[in-house]
Amino acid sequence: MPSLTAEHVGGRVVIRLNAGVRDGRERLTDVLGELLEISDRSLLIRRDDGTELKIDTEAVVAAKPVPPRPVRYSAIARLERVAAAHWPAPDTAELGDWILRAADGWTYRANTALAAGEPGMPLDDAVAEVEDWYRRRGLIPAFSVPLPSGRRFGAELEERGWTGNSPTHVMTRSLTDWTAPDRPDLPPVTIGQAPNMDFLNMVSARRGSLPQIALSVLTGAPRTGFATLRADGELLAIARGAVGDGWLGLSLVEVAEAARRRGLATYVIDALIAWAGVDQAYLQVESFNEGAIALYERLGFTLHHTYVNYVAPSAS
Ligand SMILES: CC(C)(COP(=O)(O)OP(=O)(O)OC[C@H]1O[C@@H](n2cnc3c(N)ncnc32)[C@H](O)[C@@H]1OP(=O)(O)O)[C@@H](O)C(=O)NCCC(=O)NCCS
Questions:
Q1: Sorted alphabetically, which InterPro entries does this protein's record hold (predicted)?
Q2: Rounded Cα–Cα distance for residues 218 and 27 (Å)
Q3: 161: helix, coil or strand?
Q4: Residues 94-118: tens digit of each pLDDT
Q5: Which of 168, 260, 262 to mutate to test the pocket of ligand 1 (most atoms within 8 A of CB)?
Q6: Residue minimizing CA distance to atom 22 of ligand 1
């Protein structure tokens, strides 16, 4: 009997099977994929090529869960570009595959050179160009380096004296099996194309006052939804959704301190998912924000990749 239970359904597993006897010897074969169903008699596996295989438990020699399939570097670069378009800097330039972004210094996301892919020139020249581009704008040169694809480049920057901040987690979830929370006790969430005063007040209370340019970053995505939840005259929760390229990007999820752990973040996220009408969602969360990571994991988001922001040494 395999050492898998219903707990493992939805996870990635490897099954060692008895594939019969040939030339007088027992042959074994491995099947790797997602466990879709399990019973006393059989297992249903979806292999990486998408085909499904029903396996008789009597043929199973061993079975165990394995870590999720590593994310391809090309998928990391694609999602990073989507996220860049969802949080668009008004001032950009391309350097090979890299995207240089500036927004008067408002947020790392809009003021770092996104180093996904190759700059198309020797590294020293590319780094010098980036430094020059930012310094001409009065900004501290900074890179956003997706990992693990950019590990080597990150090490090169460190050798040049650049400082890496703590990583940000990029988490994703397919929305095809999303189940809406049942909350008849709550009023509907309001979703507008632009942020209202409630939204802006809650964001600036935590992040400090918003410069003029923030509005153009916040509303510049292909489609934006600014969710606010009010009850009994009080603002309880906000979240921003950006839609483009088939993705919903969630950002600025926040619940009033006194109203936390009542399912309100879950509720506003659900409203944005319904509003977005797309099949996949992602978000970016700082690795030290344990509460938010716990929330997103609880909602079924998993780690896609991370990125680190690197800041130039001040003397260079
Ligand atoms: C993170 C935050 C949005 C969560 O909002 P919330 O309304 O309390 O979340 P929910 O009630 O929908 O949480 C659902 C589940 O997520 C998990 N969760 C949420 N906050 C958690 C925390 N601080 N610690 C551990 N688990 C947490 C729990 O499993 C929770 O279910 P439970 O309360 O039954 O245990 C809120 O704490 C907040 O506004 N933090 C400051 C802003 C912030 O960090 N935003 C995220 C930026 S990426």
A1: Acyl_CoA_acyltransferase (IPR016181), GNAT_dom (IPR000182), Rv0428c-like_C (IPR056935), SH3_Rv0428c (IPR056934)
A2: 59
A3: coil
A4: 999 999 999 999 999 999 999 999 9
A5: 260
A6: 291
- Which residue owns the Cα nearest ligand 1 atom 12? 263
- pLDDT above 70: percentage of residues in the chain: 99
pLDDT at position 96 is 97
The response to whether residue 81 sits with its C-beta less than 6 Å from ligand 1 reads no
Length of the chain, in residues? 316
Count of domains forming the chain: 3
* Residue-wise DSSP of 10-64: TSEEEEEEEEEEETTEEEEEEEEEEEEEE-SSEEEEEETTS-EEEEEGGGEEEEE
What per-residue confidence (pLDDT) applies to 235? 97
CB of 174 within 6 A of ligand 1: the answer is no
- Does one domain contain both 77 and 53? no
Would the CB of 294 count as within 6 Å of ligand 1? yes
Q: Are residues 226 and 261 in the same domain?
A: yes
Q: Are 272 and 223 in contact (CB under 8 A)?
A: no
Q: 113: buried, middle or exposed (CB in 10 Å: 19+, 13-18, 0-12)?
A: buried
Structural domain for 124, as ranges: 73-166
Instruction: Identify the DSSP state of 262.
Output: S
Quote the CA–CA distance of 146 and 103 in Å, as a whole number.
Answer: 20
Mean pLDDT of 286-315: 94
Output the domain CATH number for residue 36.
2.30.30.100
For ligand 1, atom 34, name the residue with the nearest CA: 261
